[in-house]
Amino acid sequence: MRTDMLHRTIDELMEMMPWIEDYLSSFAIDPSQFGRTKLENLGSILTEEYFEERGSDYQTFIDGFFLFIEQVKVLQEGNVLTVGSLTVLPGHNKNGEKEEFSVELKKGEVTAIVGPTGSGKSRLLADIESLAQEDTPTKRRILINGRAPDDEERFSTEGRFIAQLSQNMNFVMDLSVEDFLTLHAESRMVDEISHIVQKIYDTANVLAGESFSRETPVTQLSGGQSRALMIADTALLSPASVVLIDEIENAGVDKVRSLELLVSNNKIVLISTHDPLLALSADQRIVIKNGGISKLMKTTDDEKKHLESLEKIDRKITQLRDQLRTGKEIDMSDLLA
Ligand SMILES: Nc1ncnc2c1ncn2[C@@H]1O[C@H](COP(=O)(O)OP(=O)(O)OP(=O)(O)O)[C@@H](O)[C@H]1O
C-alpha cells in the first residue's frame, strides 16, 4: 500500500482521502499547488531546506503521513459500534397488559412488523430508534449486544449505529446527486470516493422506477427516487448496523432488491409494512396488536415458495399503476388469458 501511494499524485491522494489536507497543511503544503506532483517527488521539489526550516526532514514527513492515515482509519472504524444483536424486552400494550415474550434480532436478518393501522408498528420502530429504557408509552427496554446501552450510545448524534428511513425524505440542501453523495463519502472518510459515489448512484438507479442523472438537484428527485437514493446510500456508505424502515411500499422503489441489498451488508433490518411481498421476503415477522407484540412468526418454507407468484402479482400491479399514472388505458388482457 505504501509504495502504491508514493507513486500517486497529490490530486489522486486527495480524491481518495480528502482529509489528508489537514496533515499537509501542518507542513504548510497547499495541495492545490502540488496537485500533479507524485508524493515520492514532493521531497525533491520542496527541497530538504524546506523541511529543515520546519524542524523536520522529508523522511519524517513521509513516515508521519502514513501514521496519520493509519490513525484516521482506526478512528473511522472505531467510533461506530457494531451491533450483533438487538433485544426488545417486554413492555405493555395499550390496555397496560404485559407483552408475553422478548424478541431478539440478529445481524443479517430482516424482520417485518405487521398489524392493523394504528396498532403500534411505528411505535416499536421509535422505541428501537431511541433505545427505549421504560421511558416511552410502551415501557419497553431495548438491549444492544445483550446489554443496556449507555447514555452516550443513546443520546450522542456522533457515530449513530441506527439509521431510519422514514416515509418522506426531505432534503434541505440543494445539492446535485453527485455533490450530495461526494459530501457524504468525504464525511465518512472512505477511500476511492468517486468509485463509491458511482456505485451508490448506479444502485439507486436500479432501485428507482425512473432513472435520474447525477446532475439532478436532490430537491427535485421524486419520492421514489429519493427513497432509492437513501436506501443505496444507507446500504453502501452508512456505518449504521441497524436500519429501520417505515413503509417502503408506495415509494416506487424495487422493494425486494432494496431489502436484499441492505441484508447483504450484514445489517439488522426492521421494516414496518402492510405488503405481503415484503413481509414474506423477511425472515420473520412481529405481529402487533393493540400496541403490544402479540406474535413472532418465522417465514415458513411454504410461504417462501409463494414469493415468486407474489412477485409476479406485484409486477402486474406496478404495471397497472404506471398505466394509470401515465394516462394509458388499463390493460389486464394477460391476466385474463
Ligand atoms: N403499547 C402502547 N401503549 C400506549 N400507546 C401506544 C402503544 N403502542 C402504540 N401506541 C400509540 O398508538 C398510536 C398509533 O401507533 P402507531 O403510529 O405506531 O401505529 P402504526 O401501526 O404504525 O399505524 P399505521 O399503520 O397507520 O402507520 C401512537 O400514538 C402510539 O404512540
Automatic annotation (TrEMBL):
Gene Ontology terms for molecular function: ATP binding; ATP hydrolysis activity
Alphabetical list of SMART domains matching this protein: AAA (SM00382)
Alphabetized InterPro entries for the sequence: AAA+_ATPase (IPR003593), ABC_transporter-like_ATP-bd (IPR003439), ABC_transporter-like_CS (IPR017871), P-loop_NTPase (IPR027417)
Pfam families for this protein: ABC_tran
Tree of life domain: Archaea
Name used for this protein in its record: ABC-type lipoprotein export system, ATPase component
ABC transporter domain segment(s): 75-316
Keywords: ATP-binding, Lipoprotein, Nucleotide-binding, Transport
Similarity remark: Belongs to the ABC transporter superfamily.
